[in-house]
Amino acid sequence: MKISILGCGRVGSLVAFKLLEDAAGELLLANEPHSWADALKLDLAGAFPDRSIKSVLAVDFRKAVEEGDILVVTAGVARQPSQTRDDLLEANKQVIGNVLRGLPKQSAFIVVATNPPDVLADFTAKLTGLAPERVLGVGGDVDTNRLRYLLEEEGAPFQKAIVVGEHGERMIPVADVEVSEQTASGLRSFGSRIIQARGDTLFGVSLWTAKLVESLLSPKPEKHVASIYLKEYGCHLTWPCKVSESGVTPLPLGLDEEQKKQLEELVRSRKT
User: Fold this and answer.
1) Distance in angstroms (rounded) separating the CA atoms of residues 268 and 121
2) How far apart are CA 259 and CA 240, in angstroms?
3) Which domains does the chain have, with CATH numbers?
4) Which of 120, 161, 172, 226 has the highest CB neighbour number within 10 Å of its CB?
5) Phi, psi at residue 64, to the nearest 5°?
6) pTM to 2 decimals?
7) Distance of alpha carbon 125 from the chain centroid
C-alpha cells in the first residue's frame, strides 16, 4: 500500500517516521519546496536505512495524490498563540487546494491533520469528489487524551471520557463524571497553552495521525475518536468510531440534553 504524506514539515515528518518505524507501507513524500521531501528521506535513512531505500520516495504532489492509497494531509498554515483553529480555515483551504493536485483513486482514503480538521474534511471531500465517508479528520483522539489527563490531574475517578463535536472551540466533553467549567475551559485552551510556550503542538497529532493511517491498513477494526461523516447531520463531526481497511463505522453514544443541544448548535453553525 502507498501512503502519501502531503506536507513534510514537523507533523508530516513525525508521521512519516512513525509509519516507517512500523513498516506500514511505501511512503510517498511530497512538499514545496521539494528539497524538504528529499531531505526528509535522507533524514529517515539515518534511522531506517534499508526501509528508506526500499520504501520511501520523494515525489511531486500530483504523483502523491494520484498514486496514494491513503493520502495524509499535514500541509497548512500553523496556528499562532492568539488564533483559534477556525481562524486558519480560509488560508488552509487554499493550501489544501494547492496540495491536492490531480484526482485521487476513488478507493483512496484521505486523513486530514490540518486545522480545522472537521470543516476541512468536508471541504476535502467536495474538492476531490471522494465519498465523504472516505475522508477522516484527526483531533478527537488527541482531545480525548487531553480530557483524560485533566480528569486524572483532578483525581476524578472516570470510566468513560471522550470529546465529540469538533477539534475546536466548540468541542463537547462527554464523561461519566461531572466535567466542571474549569476543566472544559482547560480542555479548550490546552493546545493554546502549548503553542504559547513552545510554538506548536506536535506529538499528539502526529501519533494519532499515524495510528489512524495504520487502522485504515488493518483488517481488525480499531476504536478512535475522529472527524467522520455522519449522514444524519450531513457533515463531518468528531465522533467515536471503528476504523479498518473496510472503512469507518460510527459508534453509538448517549448524550444528555445539554450535550445534544450543543451538538445541534454546532451543526447549525457549520451549515450557515
Assistant:
1) 17
2) 15
3) 2-137 (3.40.50.720), 140-271 (3.90.110.10)
4) 226
5) -60, -40
6) 0.97
7) 14
